[in-house]
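During the reporting period the student researcher (J.K.) took over the structure-prediction task from the postdoctoral fellow and processed the backlog of single-chain submissions. One of the processed entries is reproduced below for the supervisory committee.
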Amino acid sequence: MPPTGRRRRETVRMQAVELFERKIKPSEVARRLRVSVKSAYQWHQLWRDGGVQALASHGPSGSRCRLSSGCLEKLAAYLEQGPAAHGWVEDQVWTASRVATLIGRKFHVSYSVSGATRLMHRLGFSPQVPARRVAERDEQSVTAWREVTWAEVKGRPAGATSASRTKPGSPVGRPGDGPGAGAE
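J.K. obtained the following structure tokens:
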């Protein structure tokens, strides 16, 4: 299986180093490795100034997790307890917004909704979108309302006409004094 993402980029940079050591010009390196000429020249400059180590990966980019490994373990345990254990009794769904709020309450650390989503995935959880339906919903009453009340409300008023030329009830031609009158 070919390397992907960061590993592929590092592999390509190391291939570039091999070519630079063989005195191959950056423009040719770019062509051979199918990278931009600009990248090849940047890599060449880094290699010339700092050697192979200058092109080695320095790990993942982005900000570090603001929770320690101990806090992450506690958060996973809190998530296992379910939302009701932490005050959300409407449903048993962890949303990213709720998790961000929980992190703020328990650890006094602010997380965005998208950051909470990434953290949940890292811990093996997935945020859920709650269905907007109450637990006490009476399906028989809802069905009866749809069949009787909604049918009455939705009914068409008598004598309704359409403004579309393709439906009956609309005038066939244009009025005699409107635009285009007498242009036959």
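The committee noted the following: The radius of gyration is 33 Å.
J.K. will present the remaining backlog at the next meeting.
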